[in-house]
Amino acid sequence: MDSILVTGNGPLNGQIPIAGAKNACLTLMPATLLSEEPLTLTNAPRLSDIKTMTLLLQSLGAEVSALQDGKVLAMSSHDLTSHTADYDIVRKMRASNLVLGPMLARLGHAVVSLPGGCAIGARPMDLHIEALEALGAEIELRDGYLHAKAPGGLKGAVHEMRFASVGATENMVMAATLAKGTTVLKNAAREPEIVDLVRCLRAMGAQIAGEGTPTIEIQGVDRLHGATHQVVTDRIELGTYMLAPAICGGEVELLGGRLDLIGAFVEKLDAAGIDVAETDKGLKVSRRNGRVSAVDVTTEPFPGFPTDLQAQMMALLCTAEGTSVLEEKIFENRFMHAPELTRMGARIEVHGGTATVRGVERLKGAPVMATDLRASVSLILAGLAAEGETLVSRVYHLDRGYEHVVQKLEAVGAKIERIKG
Ligand code: EPU
């Protein structure tokens, strides 16, 4: 298993290009299942999760080719040969459950493995099931698989979600594009990845209004056609690299960065003493003066502070002046980076969903272990600012969501290398 060795060595300066969004691409790819005609995605990120989704779609009979070094995904679901998403693939990546809605809409039946537990929380699928049942699907659990069918086809309905789940919104919106009649989804998630999915579906001929608001209305159509769509910028990769100059000092421009994707995060950076300016090409980030100030952070669905940036923000706050309180409201077990940061000299106490971070002057390098995707990158950020060497093991987590992380950080002056093992 590979590791990453980081040596803290002062300010970072230069530019980092931001890739297309992993979580947008993972919902855009299953959209190919809705149409017999080709769907092409440009600006796709080069990540292991994208390869996993590729394998899943291919196992269903879709053709998926990665072109231009993986930045373009050419997909065609003309002939689907299977309607079963196998446990072997689904257990590797929860986003596999996003094939459920499209398959049900296109084929009238689908069998999708339940993903099982996950490092950051239980993550059940009840909200997905309720949403699809509202459209008339019959779903039962047998042998660890959800067996879903819609004998008379899906029918539009009014449905209010109990919680604005990102994945359940995506599954229901995709399914409703081919349902008969009108669907109104209330308390829908508003994440930019959902807006991006709707833009793509609209390019495929879907009739949808209200994306980015809590109410999405979908007028079912008989069929969707082919399209080419550019994947939106990855707001979490963006926020992660914005923290690099925030933690180390210097000035870094994030190419392709957009404020509207991360408003709540930028507000917290400002309160901590980090300047963010819009440029022609993206966003420029620098630390005002001296140590950053402590700030309190509560994770919330979009447009609130994203849970996917909580671990990285904690890395920053470990060296802030004062005490910060971080509340994790989306996942019940998303502080596994805290004990690892503690190994580096951070002072963190976790009680349930609340972490209290007492800032120290400087972290110290240590061998640490990545526990999930965002936790692993928070340890790299902490290592960039720590005294001495930090060896982050189990970096396969990182490869799921960050392309070329070593090259991107090296380009702005970080001392970082991947050690094969
Ligand atoms: N939930 C339920 N029942 C459901 C669905 C969700 O209880 O049927 C709960 C989950 O257990 C969780 C909360 O609702 O506690 C939020 O889950 P949501 O469905 O909104 O998230 P998701 O679709 O599973 C996506 C991202 C996550 C990101 C969350 C929240 C993808 C592929 N994944 O997950 O990304 O944290 O939204 O923004 O889009 C990551 O990239 O590191 C990552 C974990």
Structure description:
This protein is of the alpha/beta class. The protein is 30% helix and 26% strand. The chain has 14 helices and 24 strands. The strands form 6 sheets. It has a 4-stranded mixed sheet with strand order 22-23-1-24. It has a 4-stranded mixed sheet with strand order 2-15-17-16. The termini are close together. The mean pLDDT is 96. The structure holds uridine-diphosphate-2(N-acetylglucosaminyl) butyric acid.
Q: Give every kind of bound small molecule, once each.
A: uridine-diphosphate-2(N-acetylglucosaminyl) butyric acid
Mean pLDDT: 96
Q: How many β-strands, per DSSP?
A: 24
- In whole angstroms, the N-to-C terminal distance is 5 Å
Work out the radius of gyration: 21 Å
Widest beta sheet: strand line-up: 22-23-1-24
Main sheet makeup:
4 strands, mixed
Number of helices: 14
Structural class assignment: alpha/beta
Globally, the shape reads: elongated
The poorly predicted ranges are none
Helix content: 25-40%
Please indicate the percent range of residues in DSSP E strands (runs of 2 or more).
25-35%
